[in-house]
Amino acid sequence: MESSPPQPRKIIHIDMDAFYASVEQRDDPTLRGKPIAVGGGGPRGVVATASYEARTFGVRSAMPGARARRLCPGLIFVPPRFEAYRAVSGQVRDIFFRFTDVVQPLSLDEAYLDVTANKPGIASATRVAEEIRRIIREETGLTASAGVSYNKLIAKLASDQNKPDGLCVVRPQEGAAFIAKMPVRRIHGIGPVTARRMQALGIETGADLRARDLAFLQAHFGSAALFYYRAARGQDDRPVHERQGRKSVSVEDTFFDDLTEEARLIEEMDRIAANLWSRVEKSGGYGRTVVLKIKFADFRIITRSRSFPSALRSADLLAETGRMLLRAQLPLRMGARLLGLGVHNLEGDAEEGDQLALAL
């Protein structure tokens, strides 16, 4: 007797709207309706999150504070309160567990949920998402956007479609067409450097990506080709699961021109360290070891590290350590095409087929 094909899963991706900024505006009524940025506004400060009022001026996460001020002269910088954000994140996560135990947090403000079999026994994943969003609003005073689909890839893309306070549902028969219209730079798993390489090959959208066969993608993108090939067809069989504790948090940047001058190298290292600290704070991934990565013009890679007796909890110490590790390598034997900085040995609570008809 033939077994029936497995039923598609029902996946929700929940993403809190401008999370840090929204918490600040909720807790301080004088900030409501104003362009605010959570983070540092000084020369080396970085925007962790911008309110939607600030985003209309082009202010974005990970942007240097000085540039954000130029774009939005009336921008209000608010120092982060990560304990407050973690408390709200815990509230939101408790709401998720009322509906399913299959929850995969990505950070303080977003998570995947598998609601194929959910605790209330609600047949429609769309209804589950609506209920979760309603309860989040009632119990925290904040809004969340949700993507509902049959896999993680499309659910995450969908949650960004109707922000803020939006819901987007992509059913199995709609997945390929949804991806086809998507710019490749927005497809989760295709980073900025890869997106530029694709654009140089004439691949601008999911439809362009789907038009390339697997052999072409393997020739240009190696081991990642199969993921891109399947993503272009709306396919993703990764399960939702409780994430294993991360072993590291890192940030690295590839440069258009190889860097050789000390002043420019130190400037880039400071920027990378500030961006890394934002990610460390967001994930709660405090670690004891700082690791420097340098990729040279000939693609040779070196790493250097320094360990501490306990986890680093200072942005200044992280930046100082990055500069120290970098300066120890100067002058470089040749130009650097990539710099990276990571925090390892983490402590704390860091978290990061055939399509059938499905009643989402």
UniProtKB/TrEMBL annotation:
Entry binding sites for Mg(2+): 15, 109
InterPro entries: DNA/RNA_pol_sf (IPR043502), DNA_pol_Y-fam_lit_finger_sf (IPR036775), DNA_pol_Y-fam_little_finger (IPR017961), DNA_polymerase-Y (IPR050116), DNApol_IV (IPR022880), PolY_HhH_motif (IPR024728), Rev_trsase/Diguanyl_cyclase (IPR043128), UmuC (IPR001126)
TM spans (from-to): none
Predominant cellular place of this UniProt entry's protein: cytoplasm
Pfam families: IMS, IMS_C, IMS_HHH
Site (Substrate discrimination) location in chain: 20
Record's catalysed reaction(s): DNA(n) + a 2'-deoxyribonucleoside 5'-triphosphate = DNA(n+1) + diphosphate
Required cofactor(s): Mg(2+)
Alphabetically ordered keywords of this record: Cytoplasm, DNA damage, DNA repair, DNA replication, DNA-binding, DNA-directed DNA polymerase, Magnesium, Metal-binding, Mutator protein, Nucleotidyltransferase, Transferase
Entry annotation: catalytic residues: 110
UniProt-listed Enzyme Commission number(s): 2.7.7.7
Cell compartment(s), UniProt: Cytoplasm
Organism superkingdom: Bacteria
Name of the top EC class for this enzyme: transferase
Molecular function terms from GO: damaged DNA binding; DNA-directed DNA polymerase activity; magnesium ion binding
UmuC domain boundaries: 11-191
Coiled-coil regions listed: none
Cofactor note: Binds 2 magnesium ions per subunit.
PANTHER family attached to this UniProt entry: DNA POLYMERASE KAPPA, DNA REPAIR POLYMERASE UMUC / TRANSFERASE FAMILY MEMBER
HAMAP family recorded: DNApol_IV
Task of the protein: Poorly processive, error-prone DNA polymerase involved in untargeted mutagenesis. Copies undamaged DNA at stalled replication forks, which arise in vivo from mismatched or misaligned primer ends. These misaligned primers can be extended by PolIV. Exhibits no 3'-5' exonuclease (proofreading) activity. May be involved in translesional synthesis, in conjunction with the beta clamp from PolIII.
Subunit structure: Monomer.
Family, per entry: Belongs to the DNA polymerase type-Y family.
Name of the protein this chain belongs to: DNA polymerase IV
Originating species: Sphingobium baderi
Chain's gene name: dinB
